Amino acid sequence: MTQSLNAKNGGAANIVVWILGQLLVLGLFRVWAAAAGLRFLWRSGRPLWKALVWAYALLFVVFMLTTGAQIYYEGGAYVFLLAAGAVSLDGWLAAKRSRIYRFVGGLTVSALVFAPFLLPILPIADANVTNDVFPVQNQTIGWPQLVASVHGVWFSLPARQRANALIFTEDFGSAGAINELGRGQGLPTAVSGHDTEWWWGPGNPHATTVVAVMLGPANGPASENVSQLEQYFGTVRRAATLSNPWGIKNEYYQGQVYICSGPRKPWGQLWPELRHYD
Predict the structure, then answer these.
(1) pTM
(2) Distance between CA atoms of residues 124 and 12, nearest Å
(3) What confidence tens digit (pLDDT) does each residue in 32-44 have?
(4) Most buried among 53, 87, 172, 274, by the most CB within 10 A?
């Protein structure tokens, strides 16, 4: 998995992205508190607390060198660093009231600057503004429309064909959207070969029709999707194009939904070939 992630998110250029990205994840001003937490844990004299410092440092280096563009991978570590930093700074802040005011003021300014990039607080129509900096938060925009499109394609199939069909998605996000938002709408559980979603299995191993939900041009041209699907199916037909009312160009924008039939091997046998990490 690391090898696959490295091919897309690694490289020397992304080392800088990783380092600067940690400032974004922390919100800049909290870097001071995280550094205080590292110092506090290291000087504690407690082996388990010092082990947290080693864990953070090793993961920092590993992620920096392998998956640098995925800046949020070490986000969980900042929970214990900031907690330790709060303990370390408590006495120092309490010694002078003005320090507390400056600290709270700095946190407030930092939050106001970074919140639009980390939290979904902008109007949806303006979400493209943050796409280049932190696109992850915009990926759920258009999910109801995605589910509606898949719903329309699914029920366009004759009942007899649906009995031996399933929904397959290129990534775990669209599988989650269908399985959560499409619950109770008559859609089957969507399956995906993406990352750990693959381990949930292929669904009906004897399926002869697959409704395939593929990502948009931000992840490659539609012709690549068709070529990929034609490796596994004799017939691939585009049935719908994904969109959203705001024109937010996330990874699902202008994605395609295909009806695939005539599997070249039984679906259950194809499943190991469909696993991918990225």
Answers:
(1) 0.79
(2) 34
(3) 899 999 999 999 9
(4) 53
